[in-house]
From TrEMBL:
Top-level taxon of the source organism: Bacteria
Protein name: ATP-binding cassette, subfamily B
GO cellular component terms, A-Z: plasma membrane
Keyword S-adenosyl-L-methionine: no
Residue ranges of every copy of the ABC transmembrane type-1 domain listed in the record: 19-309
Membrane topology designation: Multi-pass membrane protein
SMART domains linked to this entry: AAA (SM00382)
TM helices/strands, residue ranges: 18-38, 62-83, 140-160, 166-185
Gene3D superfamilies: ABC transporter type 1, transmembrane domain, P-loop containing nucleotide triphosphate hydrolases
Classification via InterPro entries: AAA+_ATPase, ABC1_TM_dom, ABC1_TM_sf, ABC_transporter-like_ATP-bd, ABC_transporter-like_CS, P-loop_NTPase, Type_1_exporter
Sequence ranges assigned to domain ABC transporter in this UniProt record: 343-576
Compartment(s) of residence: Cell membrane
GO molecular function (one): ABC-type oligopeptide transporter activity
Amino acid sequence: MFELKWLWQNLKGDRARYILALSLSVVGSSLTIVNPYIGQRIVDTFIAGDNAMQNLTDERGLLIMLCLGMIGFSLLRTGLAYLTTMQYERSSQNMLYRIRIYLYNKIQGQDMQYYDHNRTGDLMTKMTGDLDMVRHSMAWIIKMIIESLTIFIAAVIYFFTIDAELTLWLLILSPPIFIVAYIFAKRVRPMYIDLRERLSQLNTTTQENIAGNRVIKAFAREEYEIEKFADKNINYSKANKKAALVWLDYFPFLESFAQGFNVILMLAGGLFVMNGRITFGEYAAFSSLIWAVSNPMRNIGIIINDIQRFFASLSKIVDIYYAKPYIVNEHNPVEKRRFEGRIEFDHVSFKYDNGKVLDDISFKIESGETIAIMGSTGSGKTSLINLIPRFYDVSEGRVLVDGIDVRKLELDELRGNIGIATQDVLLFSDTIDGNIAFGDPDLPEEDTIEYARLAAAHDFIIKMPEGYDTIVGERGVGLSGGQKQRIALARALAVHRPILILDDTTSAVDLETEEHIQKSLRELDYPCTKIIIAQRVSTTAEADRILILDNGRLIEEGTHAELLAKRGYYYDVFMLQNEGIGRKVTTHGKE
Ligand code: TTP
Ligand code: MG
């Protein structure tokens, strides 16, 4: 019920329209009893009544009126049905539109942790299939329920006015039908929840296969992946069939009960007519409206199925709706300052769900300094820099920027002061120009070119078919790993931020290009604190200071010369890279 309340809230702006649709549904379906009533009048007056022949000649006018009335009401009902459907469609589409925007914003506003825990395929299912199911339910299933119910009630009331006893005889079938329907609903509900889960798995597999297509091809694992997909597909299909077939267990009972209405009507109604308790016309009215009582009973299974699907989807959407990110922008109206770019880690520890990755790390970076971070793979370098823009929050200690705990800063302001080139380079399906200017869409063209030059990307860009207008990413021309890194670097430089973080950004470029990039970084035309994660001594050597991480701990800190003199981890790496003599690098720099 909480979910329905939620839907009601989201109908805001279209509530009046939706209530109008519901009311029109009620009015339109109540009118269903008018024609059988007119039919009853015609039969009793002109066909089967005592003075039928007499009336046929005397009251021709009335007969024509009644016939015209029938036609008129049929047209009216059609017109109403048209209007009703329009109102349902409009209000539910408007609601869907609003919820979609809200959910999209909500997903955008989530922190990294949310994405660690939610599969893309699942989120996509929620944003598409689930939302559509909810809209479909609002427009069609609720309409069907309301209309069936109204027709049922109207018919029963009408029946009562004709003959209460006969009506009660008919209604004797309702309680067993409701009991069967209730048992069915209880049994089928978990099946639809399961079905929904399998659909999400199917979508996740599809999405991963498409995204990871290159890797699959590289390992010639197509067949395995096709099998994996087929597996999920079969699972989903089986669950679908299972849920649909459950209905068949109950169908014979419900159908028999529904047929029972006709039988009772024939037996009891026939007797009543013979006894003169009801007229022929009244019997005809019963007979022409008996479907209004038996059909809802027949459809109860379909309705229950759809309602279960509706709730399974609705609860998934409500999940997104109420998901709260831990790391949020308070949106206090602050004036966006330009930071000096001082950074401090004060006894910082950090853990993901599965264990500690940073342990009691403390260091300070002054404004304008260039710091290199080195360490074996998995030592926590990326995790460490992720704490500065608050992609994650520390578990213990503090990260300070310009002397202020990042948790006390506005996210927009903090991130607006950081230019970052992440380790996994992601370019958008856009032009190269659009990708470089991603952080600043107003970037003049000459600046785009300038930053591409600094990132050693200009030369290869102009050789591309359409230069800066070449589309890259999913649909466009492919780029090499080093080329992507350089565009990502240009993108990070182009935003002019006082803090620049480069996570392994030159790992895939050749030494000559790297040298060019280093020179550019030294000569940047704006003041900037730089944190550069790198594996090559050629990159780290020129930094003001080098931090060495090992297994989440800061084990060495100093200049190139100091660390060489220390003869620890850094010295070993240096020897390995410069002399190639194969000194073994151990975690603590000892052989
Ligand atoms: P990273 O911080 O990613 O290690 P790194 O950047 O030093 O490694 P590389 O040189 O290969 O880029 O990971 C540190 C540990 O944290 C590692 O054991 C994996 C774990 N980890 C998670 O559990 N979840 C995450 O999202 C990330 C990024 C890392
Ligand atoms: Mg990393």
